[in-house]
């Protein structure tokens, strides 16, 4: 088994949290979702964006990632925009297991619309632009990429687990 946590990255709606929980539970390891950690410490994400702006959120996200990476966790799920903040990207590049859950734009659009999750202030009309801007950033720090199309949470989790046995 490789050293360090399995860190899940990828665009909004690809299932990082669900897959992360499934991997951690199957491996009997601890799991942290960075969005959840930020919300617990600082309040709702929507409010953080509206009251203080995206850059403030990115700095909190970076601090949460840095903290998570020193906490001996098994699996970490990140928010979809974490790669846009250079310091966070650098931290991710220093991790030995960064799994990019990749999906086509049409699929994430469909999922974001269907998903009742309310903490996505950036699920707006610029979704396509954001999506294309981020693809090379995910690619830049990922050590593995999994195309999630037509696979269940369990199938994706199992693939990741098999890859790290
Ligand atoms: C964001 C994605 C969200 C959350 C925040 C910003 C983004 O997380 O961190 O709303 O910029 O893509 P999910 O990827 O879990 O939806």
Q: Can you give a write-up of this model?
A:
The protein is an alpha/beta fold. It has a single domain (6-164), classed as 3-Layer(aba) Sandwich (Rossmann fold). 54% of the residues lie in helices and 12% in strands. It contains eight helices and five strands. A five-stranded parallel sheet has the order 2-3-1-4-5, with helices on both faces. Helix 1 crosses helix 8 (153-163) and helix 2 crosses helix 4 (54-69). It is globular. Bound molecules: shikimate-3-phosphate (S3P). Residues 12, 16, 35, 45, 79-81, 119-122 line the site of shikimate-3-phosphate.
Q: Helical region count? A: 8
CATH class: Alpha Beta
Helix content: 40-55%
Regarding quaternary structure, how should these chains be classified? single chain
Overall, the morphology is globular
Structural class per helix/strand content? Answer: alpha/beta
How many domains, as an integer? 1
Count of strand segments: 5
CATH superfamily: P-loop containing nucleotide triphosphate hydrolases
Q: Main beta sheet: strand number and arrangement? A: 5 strands, parallel
- CATH domain topology: Rossmann fold
- Average residue-wise pLDDT: 93
The poorly predicted ranges are none
């Amino acid at each position: 088994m490789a050293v360090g946590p399995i860190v899940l990255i990828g665009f909004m709606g690809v299932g990082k949290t669900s897959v992360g929980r499934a991997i951690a539970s199957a491996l009997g390891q601890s799991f942290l979702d960075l969005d959840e950690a930020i919300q617990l410490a600082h309040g709702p994400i929507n409010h953080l964006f509206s009251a203080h702006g995206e850059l403030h959120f990115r700095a909190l996200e970076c601090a949460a990632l840095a903290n998570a990476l020193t906490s001996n966790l098994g699996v970490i799920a990140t928010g979809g925009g974490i790669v846009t903040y250079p310091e966070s990207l650098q931290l991710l590049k220093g991790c030995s297991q960064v799994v990019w859950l990749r999906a086509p734009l049409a699929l994430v659009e469909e999922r974001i619309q269907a998903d009742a999750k309310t903490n996505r202030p950036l699920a707006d009309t610029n979704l396509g632009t954001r999506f294309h801007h981020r693809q090379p950033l995910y690619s830049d720090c990922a050590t593995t990429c999994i195309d999630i199309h037509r696979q269940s949470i369990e199938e994706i989790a199992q693939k990741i687990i098999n890859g790290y046995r």
